[in-house]
Specification:
Length: about 500
């Protein structure tokens, strides 16, 4: 399955295996760091153990661009959250990913919760959050008419928003690669040695490949502790904290206009009702310690709690609208992000413990890491021809019939709708495969095919046939998300 490892977004990259910077992990942290470094005349590689990018924590989260009021500015994560939030408008102009500043409200359902709301408001003001508002009952119900009539007031942060996190990562990586960054997928960093005389790290993958790099950035999410150990860096332990969700169909009548938060507790921001940027609704997440960092299972007990909790804020939420459930794992280290040059091992930069609001903060993490690398001695000269733009690709579901007709004239694949729930055409699936997404999940996250009401019940076999047609893979080699996750068993024939 390793045969496509260099192909994502760039079918014939020329690679020497010698880099100025190697970034380990291609979630939203690694992708932002890579794109930021692509501005300069250095050679950068991303080493990702997954068969596609964004298959770690960055694929399963709430997708919220947070409002900057949940935490005190003494934390690095808060400062990067506030800065990161402001960077999304420009990123959206340059890249192709769904983003909407729908605003965030925190709803108080009891008078005694208003004290906490006032605290959040003051914290937001101190953090420099633009437009933050303390709301009366009338105002909060005006902002969100679907809220429970029990609401007594709340908070409004108009700068909060929603993105599709995987599309954000895909777009960042596409941009970075267009500007010369090399991506190695299926590259699980397993060992590393320091060539002291050359001042280089030699970084080996589990399947025996090797690259060399002057600087290494550890952005390995849940496994940043293992990677730190490989490089003889600091000893720490990343714990997983699971968040389970329900996903509701687009048809639901309970979709709010804004992200609705309850008043947070000491350990969690609570369970939210989230109008996703593509029209569905998420309810969750829970926050439970998870022993196994690969366990994405959900439990009926927790899912019951999610629905009950969501209904206290939006009473019209209904089990009949549920189309699926899933879980994400937060990489928890301590209260704050740990972003720092290693004090134990040379030319090694830790980007660890990137829990929430890591998605929001990620553009600012990219900028911060660039500055840290510079302070570690990396010479940064801007490329004269750096191109910030990624082509905005048409999507059948957003085109007018006239626009679609034009595309069908040029390519009949636009007229063959493969995923009827999400209105995704054959042409879009083929484009995704040609960009390097060769797994069912990669195609799902890039196109939304399999994400609708039937959850792939009707379109999965068609997508498998298109992957086979485009890549030459046999049916037995098609996987859900790489590795051993084969979808068809050989004995079935
Ligand atoms: C339930 C939940 C809800 C959340 N909601 C929000 C939200 O609404 N807003 C927000 O701002 N943040 C949110 N977050 C936080 C956000 O999702 C994370 O902070 C962010 O995705 C972390 O990105 P990352 O790139 O650091 O890690 P990851 O996305 O996990 O990326 C790390 C990558 O490293 C790779 N890797 C690991 N080991 C190796 C190795 N040895 N060799 C090569 N590659 C390796 C992994 O395969 C992975 O792709 C949420 C998180 C969770 C779990």
């Amino acid at each position: 399955m390793g045969r496509f490892f260099l192909s994502n977004y760039n079918p014939t990259p020329e690679k020497t295996g010698n880099y100025d910077v190697a970034i380990i992990g291609c979630g939203v942290s690694g992708a932002n760091i890579a794109r930021r470094l692509s501005v300069y005349t250095i050679k950068t590689a991303i080493l990702e153990k997954g068969s596609d990018v964004s298959f770690g924590t960055s694929k399963a989260n709430s997708g919220i661009i947070h409002g900057g009021f949940h935490h005190n500015k003494k934390y690095l994560k808060t400062r990067l959250e506030v800065r990161g939030n402001l960077m999304f408008d420009q990123l959206r102009r340059e890249l192709d990913f769904p983003f909407k500043r729908c605003g965030i409200i925190v709803a108080a359902l009891h008078e005694d919760e208003m004290k906490s709301v006032e605290h959040l408001y003051m914290q937001g003001v101190e953090n420099g959050v633009i437009g933050i508002e303390l709301c009366s009952r009338d105002r909060i119900l005006e902002l969100e008419p679907k809220l429970s009539p029990d609401a007594v007031g709340g908070l409004y942060a108009p700068g909060g928003g929603m993105i599709e996190p995987y599309r954000f990562v895909f777009a960042l990586v596409e941009s970075a690669m267009k500007n010369g960054v090399d991506l190695y997928t299926n590259y699980k960093v397993q060992t590393a040695e320091r060539d002291i005389s050359a001042g280089l790290w030699q970084v080996q993958s589990a399947d025996g490949r090797q690259i060399k790099a002057r600087y290494v950035v550890n952005a390995a999410g849940l496994f940043a502790d293992e990677v730190s150990r490989i490089f003889k860096g600091e000893e720490f332990s990343i714990k997983a904290r699971k968040g389970e969700y329900f996903l509701l169909d687009k048809q639901t009548k309970a979709r709010p206009e804004r992200v609705v938060f309850p008043v947070p507790t000491a350990v969690s921001k609570g369970m939210l009702v989230i109008p996703t940027v593509e029209g569905t609704v998420l309810v969750g997440p829970t926050a439970d310690p998870a022993e196994d960092k690969t366990d994405y299972s959900t439990t009926s007990e927790r899912l019951e709690q999610i629905l009950d909790s969501g209904k206290t804020m939006i009473p019209s939420l209904s089990r009949n609208d549920v189309i699926t459930n899933f879980a994400g794992l937060r990489p928890y280290l301590e209260e704050d992000f740990y972003i720092s040059p290693s004090k134990k091992t040379p030319a090694f930069l830790q980007v660890a413990g990137i829990q929430s609001p890591g998605l929001t903060a990620s553009p600012a993490i990219g900028e911060y890491v660039k500055d840290l690398l510079k302070s570690m001695g990396l010479n940064l000269t801007e490329k004269p021809n750096w191109n910030p733009f990624v082509e905005e690709r048409p999507r059948a579901r957003t085109l007018s019939s006239l626009e679609l007709d034009k595309l069908i004239d040029a390519d009949p694949g636009w007229g063959n709708i493969v995923c009827r729930c999400e209105n995704v055409s054959e042409a879009e699936i083929i484009q995704a495969v040609r960009l390097g997404h060769h797994t069912l999940d990669g195609i799902k996250y890039f196109t939304r095919a399999q994400m609708g009401r039937c959850q792939g019940g009707f379109c999965t076999y068609k997508i498998i046939k298109l992957i086979m047609q485009e890549t030459g893979l046999s049916w037995g080699e098609i996987t859900k998300h790489g590795g051993e996750s084969y979808v068809l068993k050989a004995e079935l024939g």
